Each structure stands twice: as structure tokens, then as C-alpha cells.
């Protein structure tokens, strides 16, 4: 591995801690090797969740990689999430304890509320808000104890964020949501930036659906730079200051997705990609907008 190719930039969170700008998304990764490969090839941020059912695998492979490559615990940033079936104070505490045990890494760098709604409730049920408040209180207590370093949210829309900052004792450091060149939530991004909350994108490749892989603008830029479309998209995320979580289960793809050092798109190319987001609403993941 040519270390000089590995993208190592970090971003500073609103609590003063740092997070690698490019992380490894663990969703739907069933085998253990990809987590090991991720650390082997230079990722220092692994994004898991209770819902992914791979926290223990992530922890095992992180320890294995740290041992083999001489890394310390503080060199690896571990994220997990409270799923919508564990919302509320007691259930959130229960899930945190399970996650801490699963990872077995001493502490969790960042824990997110995975979704603003609670499983099984109608979208307009006021208990969504109550459960979010209680879950947040539980997470704040784990920050106080040092077992979680940072807390944030996922899939929050602007009204969820505005509401959260009103009752939060500890401010959310990130909001993780679907974001790619063909789906840009400008209002959510604006709200996050207003409150100094880092924008973190999942599904950055729109699941490699033909709608994005066959997009003529992206294909043209890919040819121009002799880069695969995945890295073109990642460079767009980086240029816009987003924290991005590419995912793959293929060793060579995992390696290439982090080999971004020294690469950049021109302002003209970035403007072309930015224009795509103005004209497309190609959403591929779940939508929280109607949840009270």
C-alpha cells in the first residue's frame, strides 16, 4: 500500500473532538474481512449500528487490525446507532450497554439516534418527540460517564434538528442522512450548518443504481479524470465539506475508495455535479420527513 495515496483528513466536531472525513460504512456487510480490510487500507472510521447486526464483528476486526498494524484504540473512530425499536430512556440505555459489550473496545466514539421515529407508532404520534427526548437524555448521561465520546443523530429533518437543539444539554455533533449528487437536502444541510452540526452522508453512491452510474455528467467527469464514478462522487462530497461513508464488501473497491489523496475536481466539474442536485430527487433510502 502506498500510504501517500490514503486520504487522512479529519474534521473537527463542535465538541472539539475530530472525526476522519471519509469513513467505512458497515451497512449490509455480513462477512468480517471487509472491516479488517478497511483498517488495513487506511480507514480510521467504522460506521456501524445495532440494526446492522455486525457490531461484534466490527469490534473483533478492529482489534485484530490494531494489533497487526500497531494502532491504538484512539486511532480508530467507532460509530453506532440506537435503532427505532429502542427509543426512550430505558431502551436506549439497554441498547448502549449491548453495543458496548458487542464492540468490546472500552468506549464508543459516537452514538447516533438512527431515526426520529419510534417503531410501531403512527407518523403523527406525539410520543415520537417524547421518546427522542428521553433517548437523548440517556445518551447525554453516557457522554458524562465517558463511555460514549460524542452523540448525534441520523435521518433528522430540519424540524427535528431545531427541536433537538432546544432541549439538548449536549449538542449533536453530526446528522447522518442520505446524500449523493442526485439527492441533496438543501434545507437539512442549511439547518445543520446553522447549528455547527457536521453533515454526514450515507448511501453516497445511491446504491450504485443505474440512475447514478449511467448519469452522463458523472460519466463524463469520470472519463476526464480516468477515475471510477465512485471516486468522482467521493471527491464531490469532500469538496463540499461533507463527512462521507462509502461502503463495499470487495477488497479492491474498499482500497480504491480511500485512495483519494492528491485528487480533486475542478470548480467547473463541481458546479456541474452541484447542478444535478438542484434538478433531481432520486431518493433510495427511508424518508423521515412526515414524522412528528
How would you explain this protein's 3D organization?
- There is one protein chain.
- By secondary structure, the protein is an alpha/beta fold.
- The protein has a single domain, classed as Alpha-Beta Barrel (TIM Barrel), CATH 3.20.20.
- The chain contains eleven helices and ten strands.
- It has helices spanning 33-40, 55-69, 89-103, 127-145, 158-167, 186-194, 210-213, 216-225, 229-239, 251-258, 267-279; strands at 10-12, 18-20, 24-25, 45-47, 77-82, 108-113, 148-154, 174-178, 198-202, 243-244.
- Strands 3-4-5-6-7-8-9-10 form an eight-stranded parallel beta sheet.
- α5 links the parallel β7 and β8.
- The longest helix has 19 residues, at 127-145.
- It is globular.
- The termini are far apart.
Chart the SSEs and their pairings.
Layout: E1 10-12, E2 18-20, E3 24-25, H1 33-40, E4 45-47, H2 55-69, E5 77-82, H3 89-103, E6 108-113, H4 127-145, E7 148-154, H5 158-167, E8 174-178, H6 186-194, E9 198-202, H7 210-213, H8 216-225, H9 229-239, E10 243-244, H10 251-258, H11 267-279
Parallel strand pairs: 3-4, 4-5, 5-6, 6-7, 7-8, 8-9, 9-10
Antiparallel strand pairs: 1-2
Amino acid at each position: 500500500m502506498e500510504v501517500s495515496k490514503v486520504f487522512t483528513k479529519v474534521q473537527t466536531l463542535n465538541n472539539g473532538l475530530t472525526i476522519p472525513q471519509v469513513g467505512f460504512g458497515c451497512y449490509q456487510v455480513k462477512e468480517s474481512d471487509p472491516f479488517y480490510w478497511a483498517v488495513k487500507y487506511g480507514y480510521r472510521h467504522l460506521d456501524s449500528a445495532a440494526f446492522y447486526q455486525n457490531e461484534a464483528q466490527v469490534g473483533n476486526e478492529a482489534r485484530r487490525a490494531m494489533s497487526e498494524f500497531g494502532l491504538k484504540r484512539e486511532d480508530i473512530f467507532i460509530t453506532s446507532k440506537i435503532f427505532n425499536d429502542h427509543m426512550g430512556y430505558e431502551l436506549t440505555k439497554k441498547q448502549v450497554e449491548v453495543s458496548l459489550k458487542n464492540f468490546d473496545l472500552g468506549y464508543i466514539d459516537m452514538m447516533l439516534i438512527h431515526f426520529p421515529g419510534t417503531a410501531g407508532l403512527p407518523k403523527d404520534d406525539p410520543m415520537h418527540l417524547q421518546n427522542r427526548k428521553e433517548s437523548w437524555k440517556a445518551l447525554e448521561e453516557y457522554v458524562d460517564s465517558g463511555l460514549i465520546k460524542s452523540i448525534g443523530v441520523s435521518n433528522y429533518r430540519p424540524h427535528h434538528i431545531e427541536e433537538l437543539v432546544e432541549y439538548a444539554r449536549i449538542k449533536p455533533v453530526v446528522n447522518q442522512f442520505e446524500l449523493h449528487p442526485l439527492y441533496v437536502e438543501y434545507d437539512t444541510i442549511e439547518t445543520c450548518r446553522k447549528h455547527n452540526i457536521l453533515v454526514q452522508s450515507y448511501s453516497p453512491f445511491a446504491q450504485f443504481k443505474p440512475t447514478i452510474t449511467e448519469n452522463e455528467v458523472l460519466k463524463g467527469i469520470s472519463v476526464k479524470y480516468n477515475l471510477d464514478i465512485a471516486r468522482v462522487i467521493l471527491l464531490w462530497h469532500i469538496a463540499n465539506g461533507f463527512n462521507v461513508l462509502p461502503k463495499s464488501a470487495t477488497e479492491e473497491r474498499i482500497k480504491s475508495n480511500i485512495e483519494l489523496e492528491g485528487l480533486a475536481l475542478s470548480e467547473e466539474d463541481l458546479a456541474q455535479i452541484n447542478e444535478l442536485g438542484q434538478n433531481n430527487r432520486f431518493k433510495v433510502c427511508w424518508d423521515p420527513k412526515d414524522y412528528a
